Amino acid sequence: MAFDGRRWLADWRRKRRYRACLAGPARAVVLRYHSIGTPTSVSGYLDPGLSLPPSRFSEQLALLAARCDVLTVDELPERLSGTPPRRLAVVLTFDDGYRDNHDEALPLLAAAGLRAAFYVTTSPLRSGNGLWISELWRLVPRLSCGELELGDGAPPLAVTASPERTALRRLLTARLAALPAPAREAALGRMARSAGCGRGEGLAGSFVEPQHVAALRSAGMVIGAHTRSHPHLDLLDPREHDDEVTGSRRDLEAILGEPVRHFAYPNPGGSGTRADAAREAVRRAGFATAVTSTAAPLGPATDRLRIPRLGVYAGSERLLFHAIAAAAERS
Ligand SMILES: [Zn+2]
What we know:
alpha/beta; 2 domains; two-stranded parallel sheet; 44% helix; binds zinc ion
């Protein structure tokens, strides 16, 4: 096989980032998963790059159980401020609320005797139509060629015959994430018409229902909130923040009958005026911790409402677990 310089450079940068995160003063990392399934089982609702096969997840859990302290997000703040113990600590988290979290990940976690946090987006619990990102994933390849008007005040998008449409999907994701939920729903309705599909078509069973959330909790898992409609809070009008953040907490508390203390920002959860406003909404909502999707070392100075995480992706997870195994060796 020919040497792929770009791939080599990307891997080198990843390794360097993983090593830096694993060497933080708290000797702890928070891992961010989305989905457990095979490319065939998830490709109807999710980019398979965001999913890991059950067999591979099981191998990861075996490694973590044998060599690391696997903590829950409840236990993390104490670890951040305490004296760093010798063993590497790992916290497992899942974003969004795909049904495979309950059907595939939960039995494997239970078999390994480990606990994870599941951050659930709450609007799909009511609609039964799946997460809008899943709907977008299904609709983009089916859109008619021509101009697509989203009704969001921005210029129409050109839809061409390219079978992949990866750039178009990214652009649509960014445009829709910045909209308040009703405007996003209207834009999805326009896309569904262009694709000749009904709303939520093909997505039945892709997302957890309230009984699955309750079952995850009963099995000892941590349930956290992930907004109501999965917007990009850093792009969204801050007047929408409380409904998305406090609202998602209330939705989950109504199902569980107990306080929900943890939150995950959809999308990176970065810096800037609106990101600061989003953090303020998370503080107002009374969450004890909030996790982002940016990677950084953890230590006593880590903001409990902006805790960095490392994403686990199908294309790079072996590099990540190699780095975790090497860091655990140094205990
Ligand atoms: Zn998410």
